[in-house]
């Protein structure tokens, strides 16, 4: 983080905005392991990428920064292994979505993400996550 001090504030801003949007659209459900949680993780990664992209002017650098930050968060978060893998997977999906959403308005991005959240796949085992390379995944029906 010390190598990229200019990216810290946009990262915090994106994190705060993520929580506001998720509370608005899903209430407290995004704190569980359902589809709303998948939405939150993907959104968080998209927003960090977008806000840091304004500074880096480079998608790959923004994606690399976002991965470092969100991977660190998952490493430090006390979760069961399947929950951690689900979160890492949905974070990665968000970064992939960013490539197409970099210049999108927030409303367009949320709409796109909500559509894809409805197509998310329920998993019950870590190995199943690997079967859904391009889809969000979740653990619980809400």
Description:
β1, α6 (126-129) and β2 form a beta-alpha-beta unit. With 142 residues, the chain is mainly α. α2 (35-56) crosses α3 and α2 runs antiparallel to α5 (106-118). The protein has helices at 8-26, 35-56, 59-76, 81-101, 106-118, 126-129, and strands at 121-122, 137-138. It has one domain (5-138). It is built from 6 helices and 2 strands; from the N terminus they run αααααβαβ. Strands 1-2 form a two-stranded parallel sheet.
Helix and strand run: HHHHHEHE
Helix content: 55-70%
> What is the CA-based Rg, rounded?
14 Å
| Tally of individual helices | 6
Strand order of the largest sheet: 1-2
CA-to-CA gap between the ends? 36 Å
Number of E-type strands = 2
Overall structural class, as computed from helix and strand content, comes to mainly alpha
How confident is the prediction overall: mean pLDDT?
A: 95
User: Main beta sheet, described?
Assistant: 2 strands, parallel
**Low-confidence runs (pLDDT<50, min 5 residues)?**
none
Features:
single chain; 142 residues; mainly alpha; two-stranded parallel ribbon; 2 strands; 68% helix; 3% strand; globular
Quick summary:
By secondary structure, the chain is mostly helical.
Set down the secondary structure blueprint.
Layout: H1 8-26, H2 35-56, H3 59-76, H4 81-101, H5 106-118, E1 121-122, H6 126-129, E2 137-138
Parallel strand pairs: 1-2
Helix pairs in contact: 1-2, 2-3, 2-4, 2-5, 3-4
């Amino acid at each position: 983080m010390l190598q990229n001090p200019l990216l810290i504030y946009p990262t915090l801003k994106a994190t705060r905005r993520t929580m506001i949007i998720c509370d608005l659209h899903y209430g407290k459900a995004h704190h569980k392991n359902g589809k709303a949680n998948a939405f939150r993780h993907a959104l968080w990664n998209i927003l960090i990428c977008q806000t840091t992209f304004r500074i880096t002017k480079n998608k790959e650098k923004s994606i690399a920064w976002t991965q470092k930050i969100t991977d660190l968060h998952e490493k430090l978060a006390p979760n069961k292994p399947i929950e951690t893998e689900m979160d890492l997977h949905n974070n990665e999906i968000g970064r992939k979505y960013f490539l197409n959403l970099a210049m999108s308005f927030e409303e367009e991005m949320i709409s796109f993400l909500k559509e894809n959240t409805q197509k998310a796949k329920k998993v019950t085992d870590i190995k199943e996550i690997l079967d859904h390379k391009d889809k969000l995944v979740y653990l619980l029906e809400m």
